[in-house]
Amino acid sequence: MEREAGLADGGFSNPGVITMRRSLPQPVSMDFPALSSFVGDAGEGGGAGKAPSSGTKALLIRTALLALRLLAGFCALYPASTWSQGGNGVANPLDGSSGYSNFSPGNTYDPYNRTPQYVRMDQPLGTEGRLDDEFDFRLPIVGRMRVEGFYDDNVLNTGILKKGSFGTFIQPWFFLPFHYRSLTAGLGYSFRGNVYENVPQNNYVDNYVNAFSDVRFDHRNRLSLNGSLSYAHDPLGTQFVQGDASLLLKNPNEWQSQSFGALYRYGAEGAKGLLEFRFDYMNRYYQNNPEFTRGRSLNQYNVGGAFYYRVLPKTSLLFEINESFSDYLNPLPNGISQTNNQLRVLGGVTWRATAKTTGILKAGVLVKEFDEPAQGLGANGQPRPTFDAAVLWQPRSIDTVRVGAVMITNESNYLGGAVNNQTYSVMWNHQWLPKLSSNIYANAMENSYTGSDRTDKGYMLGVGVYYPLQRWLTSGLQYTYTDRSSTLEQYSFTRNLVILNLQMNF
Predict the structure, then answer these.
(1) Strand partners, 261
(2) How far apart are CA 87 and CA 145, in angstroms?
């Protein structure tokens, strides 16, 4: 398992300028009459409400709307990757596929991976903190501090000249929530630092700032915005510095990333149909080690939508289409550009059949076309199968099982071209005693690189035990074993990782 808590774990992800009205004292009507009967008419009490008559209430309304405008401006000026950037230092054991297809389960968020999980497969991990969906003024600031001591017997993911090290990881995380009537918003900051005793070249300090807002205009219309700014790194032995190359560098590849995302939903609660429209922008600019990072900086735009049709009270069919354009700013050292368009069309079903089972299954086709035909190396623009699946099953209150599967094609982190990724994962959480819990997790992956004889296969097994010392303090002990075999021997490795951690929530 990639011991890298510095990469994000998914959350509010993915600059443009958002223009907001100066004031919205009345409910904003965004109805489409032709769809009204289909997406539902009955209100759910979530609208903005009428303008209050009293001066005090009017002042509160104006203050809230001003805060929303300021937040939107912040998102436009200072965006970046997810406000919940990896609260879990052991990393997400169920996300073994990164956009660059390097088997390091620690890479729980990757801007190149365009297959977001609809059912979060990484929670809980025992010591992981949790935020409720609705924030209020009872807690003006939410925070947690995670401290870990660990031993990693293969810090650089190499098959030969393995370097082991004890280390210390620290992550304070703060989140300022705001909730008023139909408006929910927040601003977060996370700092991560890692020190390896025997491999100091892999030490790092990462910083993340994140913001989001969510507003219900009325019972059918809802808009969510998010933005973030990251100063982070790729650990040695991952992404473009794998195998023998990881022994050459004196420090990791460092990058700056910004992102902005908008999601608009149209449809009333309980209506037959629901429409979603999404736009995301992300950039990542590498700052050092040009011999490895040249050609990897990019701007990425994603546009998509989904339509859900309810066939049973808690079951809906879905149709989804997404297109992304990845503009790489420079060619790779071999002169090849990774710039490409990707179209993904899927159909499937999502359900909450009982209180015990929730899931989503999607399958379809993916077409990836590089600007330079040679980049696809025989597969450029050809349809390929793709799917997402995530199921959460809770047979008893003390047991939770999560199962996930993903097939996706992304840009390669190797010689250029594409890589076809498949990842399958499972996790079982069990509460043995009121203050003693555990989880067991495993995943398997296969990454096949086009135009190359390189194919990586691997698996990861892990177990964790957690015990709360106080209501606000939880301890955990985790062990993970990772094994990757490759047709190119230098990319094969095994790894053992032991982590003792404390998490304080306040």
Answers:
(1) 226, 280
(2) 9
Q: Is the dihedral of CA 108, 113, 116, 121 positive or negative?
A: negative
Helix (H) or strand (E) holding 319: strand 315-328
Q: Does the pLDDT at position 442 exceed 90?
A: yes
pLDDT for residue 97 is more than 50: no
Q: Which of 283, 143, 183 is nearest to 227 (CA)?
A: 283
Q: What is residue 66's DSSP assignment? A: H
Quick: pLDDT tens for 125-159: 222 222 333 333 334 678 889 999 999 999 999 99
Interstrand relation of 315-328 and 493-505 (parallel, antiparallel or unpaired): unpaired
Q: How many residues does the chain have?
A: 506
Q: Round to whole Å and give the CA distance between 59 and 238.
A: 52
Dihedral (CA of 427, 6, 135, 52) sign: negative
pLDDT tier, 65 (very low <50, low <70, confident <90, very high otherwise): low
Give the contacts of 437 (CB within 8 A, at least 6 positions apart).
126, 429, 430, 431, 465, 466, 467
| Cβ-contact 370, 339 below 8 angstroms | yes
Are 271 and 40 spatial neighbours (Cβ–Cβ below 8 Å)? yes
What tokens were used for 298? 């990019």
Rounded Cα distance between 473 and 281, Å, is 37
In the block, tokens 């600007």 appear at 371
**Kind and range of the H or E element at 271?**
none
Distance CA 279, CA 101 (A): 24
365 token code pair:
């086709």
- Residue written as token pair 């199921």: 391
